[in-house]
Design goal:
Elements: H1 2-13, H2 19-60, E1 73-77, E2 82-86, H3 89-103, H4 109-127, H5 137-145, H6 152-156
Antiparallel strand pairs: 1-2
Helix pairs in contact: 1-2, 2-3, 2-4, 3-4
Length: about 160
């Protein structure tokens, strides 16, 4: 786990445009994207469980429990192995909250994609990437399949689109 954290900061601190630096940054960016996607999903699932727990406790007259925090490390599968990933806590927490807000229907799909992309843009900037990676592509794909007209390039640039 600590090596995933060290790799993130190594990529963030790499200067220069050598081929090796670009490849390493790309590898870590891919892992960060997967990490943020998992944290988004975790936030959505735990928000649902948290809401159910709150309803149970309210009917019993107890105190509302705190919303759980996202895990600082995630396990993701690559083509050949499973690896731990790391993203700084402030970015992971933002994405976790976006996932929970989306699950609770407090924000619509367009706002969700815009907010998630803002987090991805921050991570991309932190890593010193030339181009930001696209966040929650799986959600964009689901919305397109469901008939929504979400344009990933417009969303990635912070453009406006109507919620569907």
């Amino acid at each position: 786990m600590e090596s995933s954290k060290a790799s993130y900061y190594k990529a963030a601190n790499l200067k220069g445009l050598s081929r090796e630096a670009r490849i390493f940054k790309g590898l870590i960016a891919g892992r960060a994207r997967a990490h943020l996607d998992k944290v988004f999903i975790e936030g959505a699932h735990q928000a649902e469980a948290h809401q159910e727990a709150c309803l149970r406790i309210l009917t019993e007259g107890g105190e509302t429990p705190e919303m759980p925090e996202p895990k600082p490390f995630q396990m993701v599968k690559t083509k050949t192995e499973s690896v731990y990933t790391y993203v700084p806590a402030e970015f992971a927490k933002e994405m976790y909250i976006i996932g929970s807000l989306y699950q609770a229907a407090s924000i619509g799909p367009t706002e969700t994609l815009r907010m998630a992309q803002e987090v991805a843009d921050k991570v991309s900037l932190d890593l010193g990437l030339d181009e930001p990676f696209i966040a929650v592509q799986f959600l964009r794909d689901e919305l397109e399949e469901a008939g929504g007209e979400i344009n990933a390039s417009t969303e990635a640039k912070g453009g406006e689109a109507e919620d569907t």
